[in-house]
Specification:
By secondary structure, the protein is α+β, with helices and mostly antiparallel strands. 22% of the residues lie in helices and 37% in strands.
Length: 176
């Protein structure tokens, strides 16, 4: 079993892209996933360089088409849970051939503005390694969460307030 987790963690590191702390397991369960109607719609970054199109595709399941500042698109599946009264997105790139890597983002809605915090700060990565919730390779900047959903929720829930004190990593404005 441990060999399988290490192999899966290595593959998640290789396929994680710009997120610095992927997870082998989802943050949500069928019982904890929730609808977040404010998320559905078309969004543009404050500097107009990125766009995001979010659609509800099933029961509490969203599809996100994200276009980065270079005009390159990617498609993501997204579920939302609430931790410490904060909506948290669990995103997974929608590619059938990859080993699933879940990425977590705290969300805040302020009128027509969506603020986003990537839950992968160096402080959070360090804590995950120290608490035995992650596989850490080399320096502490190569971390893959290997803990099950309930442990992930407890860990992020207790650290979420500190993470959202910093400036958001991204802000998106709703398009009309």
């Amino acid at each position: 079993m441990k060999i399988w987790i290490v192999l899966l963690a290595g593959a998640a590191l290789a396929s994680s892209g710009c997120f610095d702390m992927p997870s082998v397991y989802p943050l949500y369960t069928e019982q904890t996933a929730m609808a977040e109607p404010r998320l559905t719609g078309d969004w543009q970054s404050r500097d107009s360089k990125e766009q995001m199109f979010v659609r509800l595709t099933g029961d509490r399941k969203y599809r996100v088409i994200y276009i980065d500042d270079k005009g390159e698109g990617s498609v993501w599946e997204l579920r939302v849970v609430k931790l410490s009264e904060t909506p948290v997105a669990d995103m997974m790139q929608a590619r059938e051939t990859d080993i699933p890597a879940h990425h977590f983002l705290a969300l805040s809605f302020d009128g027509a503005t969506l603020k986003v915090w990537f839950l992968d700060s160096s402080q959070l990565r360090g804590k995950a390694g120290e608490e035995g919730l992650a596989y850490v390779r080399g320096k502490k900047d190569e971390v893959v969460l290997t803990a099950p959903s309930a442990s992930l929720a407890a860990f992020l829930g207790k650290n979420l307030a500190e993470e959202v004190k910093r400036a958001p990593d991204a802000e998106f404005l709703a398009l009309k």
